[in-house]
Structures are given as structure tokens and as C-alpha cells.
Amino acid sequence: MVDVDSASEPAAESAETPAPDPATDTAADTAAEPATDGAAARDAELPPVVADGAPEAADLLRGGAAAASPVTSSVTAHASAEAPAVGVTGGTERFIDVPKSHKFTKPIMWMKATGLSTGVRTIKGIAYKLTSKLTREAMAAFLYRGEGNPKFTPGSRFPDVPKSHKFYTSIMWMKSAGLTTGIKTPKGVIYRPQHNTTREATAAFLYRQAGSPEFIDSGTVKLSGTVMVAETVTAEPSGWAPSSTTYTYQWLKNGTAIPDTTDVAYTLLPEDEGATVQVKITGRLEGAKSISMTTNPVTVKGLEVTPGTVTVKGSPEVTKTLTASATGWVPAATEYTYQWYIAGSPVAGATSSTYTLAAGDLGKAVTVRVTGRLAGYKPAGLTSKALTVKPKQITVAEATEMVRQTIFSEVNRIRTG
Among 238, 302, 398, 403, which is disulfide-ready with 394 (CB 3.0 to 4.6 Å)? Predict the structure, then answer.
């Protein structure tokens, strides 16, 4: 008779034969853990997540390797819906305290993937509580869930497991299925529901007893590309294991599947403008439960003119004329409108590509805002770099003429004086 959690009992008290650990077992598998506050037991109180076709508990204990039927679970990515460009990332299904580098990451995540563990709620999220101890009553709940909560006829009960016990059904199912014979003590055979075993060692044992089956350890999904009409966005999964995992895709518009959009990429259409777009990716592996992720919704932007540059030619001097030119704007067929500004205020009527500086502009900043327009596209504007209006600069010839005119005027004044 195999009883996975009797191994931690003193040998003199156990009426059962402890299961032999595989040759790869390490001392860490069964090392005694420091006493805890019993938080691990709360794991069994979480709502069960049991997938149809999950490996049966009896097979787990007897060394079987029942294959799980493909069953889809879903997790929503936590990415900013405000970023319409690159970098929308899907979520993961990992326990928050089980990094991929952990020595027992595979058996623990297998426990989660098959629905045998639902985790422990903490203020930071769902954790596995690696070194917290697992009570025998919680272990019974794991196995009973794994079996699919079957109906059975209970026999004689353990003296320390009354019918009012919260895990009475799970423990009595183990007894009726022959998965536990109890623990012999001087006072009789009991179950000791609150006796502890380490959770990580239990996960490793169950996983190995199941034949170390393959399962999907989900990674992330990244939605790359600019979420704009006529642009193509692509789903990019990464970090999924094993590498033999294959993927299927379904693109969503306002949360509803878009017909015939099951490729890794999707080109956004004009009718998608203003709607939200997502991609649902499903990882599949033969003999394992499928895992799905859906990115957060992102709003599709309409077609927009993309500004290039605005250049102002001419000398910023009083009486001089400045000319604005726009280059490098996309699409190339863009038409332009202009508005000139003096000291940040629009100049009335100054809406052509040229502007002649007036005496009142002296010492002030002059700019021009160019707006690109094209039918079917949202307009876009760009303002030029500010230039300071300088006094009019005169040439030598002009200065000479000014002196000549001054002298001529003075001579005439003297003659007529």
C-alpha cells in the first residue's frame, strides 16, 4: 500500500509502507521544514480548478501516467491599453513564488496545470508557498479533486476524522479507494489530518509518480506593430515550454472573434478604426491541457498623416519675406495649409506659405504651423523652430545713399535759411 504523506511520520507509528523515492530524489525532497502558521492548509480551501481528463489521483499514487485531455484555460494579459504601438504583453500562469529557476518548478507548475493545486491567496497574488507545510487533509483534497470529486460509499471512518470535518469527504474517499490505511498508534489507527509534509516535496513526488508527464508551462505573448488602420500587428509568444508547444491564434474585435483571422498576424482594416483589437493565443501539446492567453484590448487608430519636417527660408528681418516648406511627410500626396504666428499668437490673414515681416514684429518670435491633409486621413500638424525678428540690415550702397540724402537735405536747408 502506497501512502505518499505517511513518509514523514515516525516509523513506529506508521501502519503503511512509505513510497520509495526515485533515484533522483535529493535530501531536500523530504527535509523537515521550519514550523509555519499553517497558511499552506488554506490552499485546499480555494475553489477547485479541476480539468476534465486531468491525471487521476489513483494513477498518480500507483505510478500511472494518465494523459490529460486538452482543456483550455484563460488568462488575460496585463498591458497598457493606452499604448497603440509596440509592446502589449500577455500575462503568465505562474505562481508568484515559483521562478523558472526553482529546482521543482516543473512538478509544481504541473500541479497547477492539471488543477491539483489552486494555490494560496496572498496580498501579492496567488502563491504556492514552497516551504510551507502541506497538511494531510490538504493532500487528501488535492487527490480527491484530481480524481474528479467521484461519488463513493464511505466505510468505517478514522476516529480523528468526524463527519463534521471540512475534508471528511476527501479523506474518506482516500480510505475507500485504498490510498491510505491510516497510521497505527497505541490508541488505534488514525489519519492525523493536520500532520504536515512539505509542499514542494509532495509536488515532486506526485509528478514523478505520474511518470513526469509533459505539460505546457506558459510564457508571455507580445503584440508587436502599430495599432493603426492599414498596419499589420503580429502576435509573438515567448518563454513557453516545452519548445514543442504549438500555437493557434484568434483575433478579436471589441471582444468578439473576427471571422477567418487565425493567422499569427492581422492587417487592420478601415472599419476597425475606433474599435479595440486583441489576440487570443492557445498553446497546444499532445497529451497535455491547452493554455490560452488574451492580450488586453487596444484601440485602433485611424489613418494619420505622419509629419516630416518644416523649414523656414529667408532672413528674419523687418520687411523681409519668409517662406515655409514641408518635406518628408507621409503619404507623399499630402496637401498643406499654413498659419504664421508672432510671439505665439496667430497673425490674421497670414495663411500662405510666405509671410513678410512688419516693423511691429521686431524683437518677437516668428513661427509657422504647417498642417498636412489628405482625404481619408486624420490631419497632422508641425510647428517650425522659432526665429527672432531682427532690425532691417542695410547694405553699403543703401548707407551711402542715406548719407547723400541727408547731406543734400542739410545743404538745401542752409540755402533757404
Answer: 398
